[in-house]
Amino acid sequence: MIYPDNAIEKLGFADIKALIKSKCLSEPGMEMVDKIQPQTRFDQVDKFLRQAYEFKELLVNDAPLPVDHLYPIRPLAEKARIVGTFLSEDEFFTILLSLKTVFAIIRYFNERSGQYPNLEALFEHLPIEKNIVTAIERVVDAKGKVKPTASPALAEIISSIAKAEQEARKRIDLVFRTAQQSGWTADGNLTIRDGRLCIPILAENKRKIKGWIHDESATGQTAYIEPEEVFHLNNRVRDLEFDKRREIVRILIELTDELRPHVPLLISYQSLLSKVDFVRAKALFAIDVDGRMPELSKDTSISLVNAKHPLLLLTFRNTQQAVVPLNVHIDEQQRVIVVSGPNAGGKSVCMKTIGLLQLMVQSGLLIPADATSKVGLFKQLFADIGDDQSIESDLSTYSAHLSKMKYFTEHADAKTLILIDEFGTGTDPLFGGPIAEAVLEVLNRKKVRGVVTTHYSNLKVFASNTAGIENASMLFDNVAMRPLYILQTGKPGSSYAFEIAQKIGLNETILQAAKQKIGVQQKRVDTLLVDLERDKKDVYEAKVAIAQKEKQLERLKAENEQLQTYLEENKRTIINKAREDAREIIRNANKLVENTISDIRESQAEKAKTKALRQRLDQELNKHAEETKTETKVKQNPVETVAIKVGDWVKIVGTENEAQVISMAKNNVVLAMGELRTVQKRANVVRIDKKHLQTRTRQAHHAKIADDVASFRPEVDVRGMRTEAALYEIEKYLDKAIMMGFPNLKIVHGKGDGILRKFIRDYLRKYGEVTRMEDEHPDRGGEGITYAYLD
């Protein structure tokens, strides 16, 4: 139960329903959205959430669901239920299209049996009655008209009409040609008047042709005459048209009688279409607000992680602003949170976010919060938000607040969530504060859960000294004098009244006079709160910095492991290469020896020739020996006499890898290889000439760029990919296009439901280099292709 009734509007839930309603394709789906109400049964809420979650997954990652025709067929089924009535051909065509959509949906999920169990439950045990479709298709064609072959009688009547019309046309053409030859006709051809084919005759000649005058021109110079010999044929055509209409009505009555036993099934089909439309609208809204399914709990507890107000999120998205996420925890030990802090610091938004997300979860809607969030179920939600003074009820603002407090204290229990904004305001603080404290004490004894916002110091003190109630504050940058919109529990917050007044330029004399008028103790408390908040801000920033350092450390650790793996693989490659080179040397040496022996035999051991061959063999062997000796020397004495210092470029011995020295410790050097870091012994690196390195690197880099530019096309096709894979592929192509100076990037994503197109465009807006986005020309793909223009 929600109290008061307007709490739903004040929390923004009515606006959420309106946004979901706009996503519906049918009137029945919109009617279901209007009926959305928070539920209290765990199994029901769990089912609704899972249906919305599965449909969101379907829209984002699966083929489009066939929902082309979602027409309301229940009224037509109710009409067919009445004996003696019949459906028109258009109404039968509507039922036919809707049934084809129903059967396509059922087949879609049958092909994915077990993948979407909660959506499959929507049509569980619902049969596919193809006889209905067969019967309608036997009578109605693809354009929604009764087929000429719907019955033998209808086919004969249509044939007779065609013959009669043909005969009438021949007769009137003959009369028309005769009149033309006689010069009796006016300018123009045969024309239709009152549904009859007529000849345009000059007024002075109208008595020369027997027939009926159906009309005259505006000037009276032309008469439109139906010849007498054609009149009887046209009457015959009209009689046949009446026969055709009566036969069509007979066929439709017969088809309606055939459809009547299936009326309950048609209503069940309508229910399926309505539910599919309804759940689809919830899933589309969830995509818009990045909604996720939280963990549902049977306890009356709330744990929101990185939660955002959905309406604020949509508003800020249009203005390129970011919403600060909310983290809050309410449970048995921390039942009521008393939020304090400066005006416009986000207290009310914090409270409304908690209330709205709670209503959304209990209504089966996904919420913009991490999936690790945990939300329980409440049987009652009481809210006191805004000014509810009433002239009709003779209630002042404070009286209206007190009326609500009376109701809260009488009807609240442990399964009630209370939301009270600016608790105790509206009257003298000397009396409003104690009354608010007494009410809070009663509510705490009833073990309610909730959020209270206040400026009253006595409520902050009460929260500090009372079990079950916890202070919280909205962080405020007291240097820049601006709110940070971050909720911190554990300590109250200052209202920063004097600081804000000083910032806006209130006279210093007035400020000093005001400070003299408040008590010394109150001044100390407020000063302490300001200092405490400053310390909290410093601690928070320190935690963020530590988290960043830890993340950087993890990244460096991963890079080091990656580099070690790379070096191990490179080491094996070098050893294998050396072994292959050694085998090649041995093969060449053996071949040289064999060739020398062969030449000696051929020269029949002639001394001069033999001597020359031996000298050549010795030279080749000495050459290989010198090369091996040089390589061994380099490997054994790799260290140069030139000292290595930070900033030098070195080459790792035994590899072709070059790196820069970023630090040194004892006999170790820390090297940077692009984004990777590695530690090597001083003896394992050789200093290389920086100028030579830069020249070679630049040449290699220019060659690589030239190759990339020659082969790169600024076009990427992501059709059929999942969202994450598509965005990853687009990012690679976008980076290359920007680096190589291309003016635009063509992205082929297909049309479908437009989900992938929306994700891609939202992603591209994060790039400052993307100046605008346009669809392809309709003749060449339209909305299925996006052009991203680059600065």
UniProtKB/TrEMBL annotation:
Spans through the membrane: none
Smr domain sequence ranges: 716-791
Signal peptide: none
Domain of life: Bacteria
Record keywords: ATP-binding, Coiled coil, DNA-binding, Endonuclease, Hydrolase, Nuclease, Nucleotide-binding, RNA-binding, rRNA-binding
Keyword check for RNA-binding: yes
SMART domains (alphabetical): MUTSac (SM00534), MUTSd (SM00533), SMR (SM00463)
Keyword Coiled coil: yes
Residues annotated for ATP binding in this entry: G341, P342, N343, A344, G345, G346, K347, S348
Cited InterPro entries: DNA_mismatch_repair_MutS_C, DNA_mismatch_repair_MutS_core, DNA_mismatch_repair_MutS_sf, MutS, MutS2, P-loop_NTPase, Smr_dom, Smr_dom_sf
Known EC number: 3.1.-.-, 3.6.4.-
One example of a Gene Ontology biological process annotation: rescue of stalled ribosome
Enzyme superclass (EC): hydrolase
Coiled coil: 539-627
Gene Ontology MF annotations: ATP binding; ATP hydrolysis activity; ATP-dependent DNA damage sensor activity; endonuclease activity; mismatched DNA binding; ribosomal large subunit binding; rRNA binding
HAMAP family, sorted: MutS2 (MF_00092)
Function: Endonuclease that is involved in the suppression of homologous recombination and thus may have a key role in the control of bacterial genetic diversity.
Recorded family membership: Belongs to the DNA mismatch repair MutS family. MutS2 subfamily.
Oligomer status and interactors: Homodimer. Binds to stalled ribosomes, contacting rRNA.
Protein's recorded name: Endonuclease MutS2
Lineage: Bacteria, Pseudomonadati, Bacteroidota, Sphingobacteriia, Sphingobacteriales
